[in-house]
Amino acid sequence: MRTALIVGAGIGGLAAGIALRRAGWRARVFERAAAPRELGFALNLAPNAVAALRTLGVAGRIEAEGHRTGTVELRRLDGRPLKRLDVAALDAPAPALMVLRQTVHGALLDATRPRISRSPATASASKRTAPLCGWSSPMDGASAATC
Ligand SMILES: Cc1cc2nc3c(=O)[nH]c(=O)nc-3n(C[C@H](O)[C@H](O)[C@H](O)COP(=O)(O)OP(=O)(O)OC[C@H]3O[C@@H](n4cnc5c(N)ncnc54)[C@H](O)[C@@H]3O)c2cc1C
Total domain count for the chain? Predict the structure, then answer.
């Protein structure tokens, strides 16, 4: 089985890990933060992003907790609209959603954690080495998850 090494357990890294796993790869995700977390507040997910999350099998909670985007507007500094797009009327394979970042990240982590290998943790001098999955890499004290 081929193995992919992914640096970063953000939305991108976790989604790539899940996609690779579904394609038959073994994926290891390395994260330098003590615990994987999502900075920021909300995300506007375009229809293709929601469709991709459905393909990964993680869209259920995201669609349940997200709010459907009706209209998107780009505005000038003075508030006058530059462009308006009726997203709800698009003939898209999935809806556009406004959702908390933690919800998206949490859904991806939930899909990753059950498959994390719990091989015995190795000691590390780095305080940044966190038990994301109980396996420490020699790379810069990062922790790793096996998707
Ligand atoms: C203000 C703002 C608003 C946005 N709004 C939207 C939006 O509405 N809709 C949308 O779709 N997108 C939006 N984006 C873009 C979206 O947030 C990013 O594309 C997405 O979060 C990137 O995810 P990522 O996993 O690639 O990177 P990140 O979330 O940055 O994750 C990278 C991870 O890699 C880790 N890392 C980095 N270096 C190393 C290393 N050397 N070793 C180990 N780990 C490492 C970091 O600790 C981090 O956890 C917005 C971005 C910004 C800044």
Answer: 1
